[in-house]
Automatic annotation (TrEMBL):
Origin: domain of life: Bacteria
Protein name: hydroxyacid-oxoacid transhydrogenase
Record keywords: Oxidoreductase, Transit peptide
Residues passing through the membrane, by range: none
Domain Alcohol dehydrogenase iron-type/glycerol dehydrogenase GldA, chain residue ranges per copy: 16-188
Organism listed in the record: Nocardioides zeae
GO MF term set: alcohol dehydrogenase (NAD+) activity; hydroxyacid-oxoacid transhydrogenase activity; metal ion binding
Boundaries of every Fe-containing alcohol dehydrogenase-like C-terminal domain copy: 235-306, 322-435
Record CDD domains: HOT
Family: Belongs to the iron-containing alcohol dehydrogenase family. Hydroxyacid-oxoacid transhydrogenase subfamily.
The enzyme's E.C. designation: 1.1.99.24
Length: 438
């Protein structure tokens, strides 16, 4: 008997306030919740920009609430760093609302704190199986206002929280609709100080979100689900397509310029227009992939980051007092993207070529309209923004492929979103071919 296929797709998003100056209105927006105690979550690098302190003062002045700042979110959070933040939230609480100011690292840390100051148990009770127990939160969470300072993750609008489980050398996450921020405040002026490599790496994250959700298996090509089986990621669909396409067009006109401006040392305010376009691209891609899902490059990125060798990226030097090596998330995602999209081309040629046209609207990259076109466009962007030339450049070799395949294979939730059925051999092929791109 034929399995019936899906006819329904879903879409959800936080309320959104966007544009230069938007972060000066957070106090007003929190008045609606009658807040008396507010927790601001940030990391040391973002705290040094002064934005979290300014937002904390503004919230206190507008609401009369007591505002407590936690500024020790770890860049690329771990189970240990999230537990520290949760303990802070539990011991310093109760709070009526949380404001996250920072990149994906601070926003995800705030999501974990929000989950565990409102629900019983430990972090691992909620982490995705098989690493954790994948329990669903029983109680509603506090209002969470997410204020991104990077142009990348889209974490301000997604239901996920990513963390590195140190003992297992594995990146995984918590995913539940209740984790989605109540409100996203996207103020591009906060991103003007984003360093060049952070702009490059988090920009590759935007690009991969848009591309992976655009090429994700179409919602109606999946088996039908019962209402209780629906998950936030439902495959590409007419609404997520619109956001992904717009994000790619914005990247085409602003990504290289934003990184060049950060690298040039010119007055950051000169780059206001391209920073604003990048901020829109990040949020729009988040609104797309946060509903459609991501697939092969993100599945491979988890073990690439989790099994890091000795690589230490520029501009992330202050990320951690213990000086641990890292492959930043967006960089990790991009390192296999050209080869992943070469593999998936046959499953959806029209979409791969349409994406290549959106990213390279003037045909500056010369490659024929076939499986090589999108990989060539991606490699050209990676080279121009200063991403390392493949897995070998961040320390991996042929001998690491089996372990990387094992780590990527564990991300079945993501692999199921790929436009074609994936095997372990497919993943090994993508990883082997990604040692060097140009
Ligand atoms: N929840 C999601 O939906 C989602 C999606 C993708 C990635 N992620 C996760 O997000 C994390 C990566 O987040 P990210 O790429 O936004 O970077 P980040 O939050 O890790 O920040 C990177 C570095 O930039 C600094 N920084 C941030 N904004 C700055 C600014 N305006 N000026 C100066 N310095 C600034 C930070 O202090 C840090 O050193 C990873 O852990 C990744 O797995 C989450
Ligand atoms: Fe990502």
């Amino acid at each position: 008997m034929a399995t019936s296929t899906e006819t329904v797709f879903t879409y959800a998003a936080p309320s959104l306030k966007m544009g230069p100056g938007a972060s000066a209105e957070i106090g007003h927006d929190l008045l609606a919740y009658g807040v008396r105690r507010v927790l601001v979550v940030t990391d040391p690098g973002v705290a040094a920009t002064g934005h979290p302190a300014r937002i904390a003062e503004q919230v206190a002045a507008a609401t009369g609430a007591e505002v407590v700042v936690f500024d020790r979110a770890r860049v690329e959070p771990t189970d240990a760093s999230m537990i520290e933040a949760v303990e802070f939230g539990r011991s310093e609480g109760p709070f009526d609302a949380i404001v996250a100011v920072g990149g994906g690292s601070s926003i995800d840390t705030a999501k974990a704190v929000n989950l565990l100051v409102t629900n019983p148990g430990d972090l691992m009770d909620y982490v995705n199986a098989p690493v954790g127990k994948a329990q669903a939160p029983q109680h509603p969470l506090l209002p969470l206002v997410a204020v991104p300072t990077t142009t990348g993750t889209g974490a301000e609008s997604t239901t996920i929280c990513v963390l590195d489980v140190l003992a297992l050398e594995v990146k995984t996450g918590i995913s539940h609709a209740r984790l989605r921020p109540t409100m996203a405040v996207v103020d591009p002026d906060l991103t003007l100080t984003q360093p060049a490599m952070v702009t490059a790496s988090s920009g590759m994250d935007i690009l991969s979100h848009a591309l992976e959700s655009y090429t994700a298996r179409w919602y109606a090509d999946q088996p039908a689900k019962r209402p209780e089986q629906r998950v936030p990621y439902c495959g590409s669909n007419p609404i997520s397509d619109a956001w992904s396409e717009k994000a790619m067009s914005l990247l085409a006109s602003s990504f290289r310029a934003a990184v060049n401006a950060a690298r040039s040392g010119e007055d950051p305010s000169e780059a206001r227009t391209v920073r604003e376009q990048m901020a829109m691209a990040a949020t729009f891609a988040g609104l797309g992939f946060g509903n459609a899902g991501v697939h092969v490059p993100h599945a491979c990125a988890y073990p690439i980051a989790g099994r890091v060798k000795g690589y230490r990226p520029e501009d992330y030097v202050d990320h951690d007092a213990d000086g641990a090596p890292m492959v930043p998330h967006g960089m990790a995602v991009s390192l296999t993207a050209p080869e992943a999209f070469r593999l998936t081309f046959d499953a959806a040629p029209t979409r791969h070529l349409a994406a290549a046209r959106l990213l390279d609207p003037h045909g500056a990259v010369s490659a024929p309209d076939g499986p090589d076109r999108l990989p060539a466009v991606l490699a050209s962007i990676m080279r121009d923004v200063g991403i390392p030339n493949g897995l070998a450049a961040v320390g991996f070799g042929e001998g690491d492929v089996d372990a990387l395949v094992e780590g990527a294979w564990a991300q079945q939730r993501l692999l199921a979103t790929a436009p074609r059925d994936m095997t372990q051999e497919d993943l090994a092929g993508v990883l082997r071919a990604s040692m060097e791109h140009w």
